């Protein structure tokens, strides 16, 4: 496995989870912000990119 793919997919997963958690906390506090949606979008796009560029054996 390529170390770049592992680091990239791990970072994308962390950013995606941070966005989802922040979105739920914002909804509970009735505090609607736009930045969690940017984190979610970035995380999904990075995971799709990682899946496309997955190093085949």
TrEMBL record:
Membrane-spanning segments: 6-25, 37-54
Entry keyword set: Membrane, Transmembrane, Transmembrane helix
Source organism superkingdom: Bacteria
Protein name: Uncharacterized protein
Source species of the chain: Paenibacillus taichungensis
Classification of source organism: Bacteria, Bacillati, Bacillota, Bacilli, Bacillales
